[in-house]
Amino acid sequence: MLTNKDMKMSFQIGQIMGIPIKLHITFLLALLLFVYVFASSPASFGYNDISPASTRYFLSFVTTILLFSSVLLHEIGHSYFARKYGVKIDSITLLLFGGVASMEEIPRNPAQEAKMAIAGPMVSFTIAAFCLLSNDVLSSLQPSFSDTYIFRVIWLIGYMNLAVGVFNLLPAFPMDGGRILRAWFATRMSYVKATQQAAYIGKMFAFMMGIFGLLVSPWLVLIAFFIYIGASEEARTTTLSVILEKVPVRKIMANDVVSVRPSMTIDDLFRFIFEKKHMGYPVIEGKSLKGIITFTDVHTVPAQERVNVLVSDVMTKDVITIPIDADASEALKLISIRNIGRLLVTDNGSIVGIISRTDLVRALQLLGE
Q1: What integer pLDDT is reported at residue 216 of this predicted model?
Q2: Residue 242: in which H helix or E strand, if any?
Q3: DSSP 3-state helix, strand, coil percentages of the chain (rounded to 5)?
Q4: What is the mean pLDDT of the chain?
Q5: CA 158 to CA 87: how far, in whole Å?
């Protein structure tokens, strides 16, 4: 799952099916890395036998762009089925090791999750079949085609998509194969237990991949590390989310909402924070919510300027709220995705409370987690 911090490190390049397509800053590193790898690898997995160097690197660049375009199509396959089942897709982001579709929540219906998970690899297999069969057909019609640069690029893209499809089907949660495995487990046990079981298998798989990587390639060790962390984090998040579904926001929110005025200076606010001991405050003028300001916002203002800068100058105007009749799992999801510390709770448009990460942690502790 991409956090709000990750989103700030991404920039949008377009839209497909109304879904924003973004490039993460790490994609630029991947672009250079893959171009170098293809340019320095021997045939048929690269172009180091081709001269001059300009041609070699041009072919490597084209292959890299086509490869990441295939990864994008892979994620669109997931997103198509997700939207079909009513899941909102915030964006698709290309990163160092591939792509990720940022969605509200994975459907807990095993059949729906399985279809969503397998859609991506099926797209990769379709691209692979199209590329490899096209080469065979064109070569049979014109034998000299197999000696062209186009043939080599198409073959490599076909082979790489085949590898991507097979790799993603490995039962290493939270990869596609691991999600299919969880969907199978979920037909036989609770969703939480299914997630924990799939995560355990995923972590064991990552551990073995890491050991193998020590003997073969450091890249496998790095991939294994990300799989292990991803499995652990998703198992934890799913468990917490299910537990908090039983807890209404109204039961754990703070009712005594302390607000500040937009005309207050940052100097006055600084003293106010130390007096009230809260780290964030809604900014209200009359009965109108203008924004929210936190201790982090205050620290962006140099000490010598705080006497002249107003709260309205540095407050966040895009305020994230949650209705009072929501459950705490919704609050956890919003706080995690947006990477924020607190949410304002509303009832018919009026602010009635505030819920923070601390409130959620306290609720979990009381529930024995």
Answers
A1: 82
A2: helix 218-244
A3: 60, 15, 25
A4: 85
A5: 31
84: which residues sit within 8 A by CB, 6+ positions away?
none
Annotate 21-70 with DSSP letters as a single string.
Answer: EEEEHHHHHHHHHHHHHHHHSPTTS--TT-SSHHHHHHHHHHHHHHHHHH
What's the pLDDT tens digit per position in 184-211?
999 999 888 999 999 999 999 999 989 9
Is 369 noted as a catalytic residue in this protein?
Answer: no
For the cut 60, the answer to whether the pLDDT of residue 4 exceeds it is no
Does the pTM of the predicted model rise above 0.85? no
Instruction: Report the phi/psi class of residue 314: left, alpha or beta, with left for phi > 0 and alpha for psi in -120 to 50.
Output: alpha
Query: How would residue 18 be classed by pLDDT, with cut points 50, 70 and 90?
Result: confident
Residue 97, classified by CB atoms within 10 Å of its CB into exposed (0-12), middle (13-18) or buried (19+), is middle
pLDDT band at 223 (very low <50, low <70, confident <90, very high): confident
Ordered structural domains, the chain, with CATH? 4-244 (no CATH), 249-366 (3.10.580.10)
Return d(Cα 47, Cα 60) in angstroms, integer. 7
Q: What is the DSSP letter of 171?
A: S
Peptide bond into 174 cis (omega under 30): yes
Instruction: Check: CB of residue 162 under 8 Å from CB of residue 124.
Output: yes
> How many C-alpha atoms does 346 have within 13 Å on its Cβ side?
13
Please tell me which residue in 75, 233, 234, 305 is annotated as part of the active site.
75
pLDDT in tens, 50-78: 989 999 999 999 999 999 899 899 999 99
Rounded to 5°, angle at Cα 221 from 218 and 223: 110
Amino acid at 357: R
Give how far the C-alpha of residue 149 lies from the chain's centroid of Cα atoms, to the nearest Å: 36
Distance CA(24)–CA(5), nearest Å, equals 11
Distance CA 110, CA 188 (A): 10
The pLDDT of residue 96: 67
Where b means 16+ CB within 10 Å and e means fewer, 332-368 reads bbbbbbeebebbbbbeeeebbbbbbbebbeebbeeee
Quick one: how far is CA 13 from the chain centroid?
A: 17
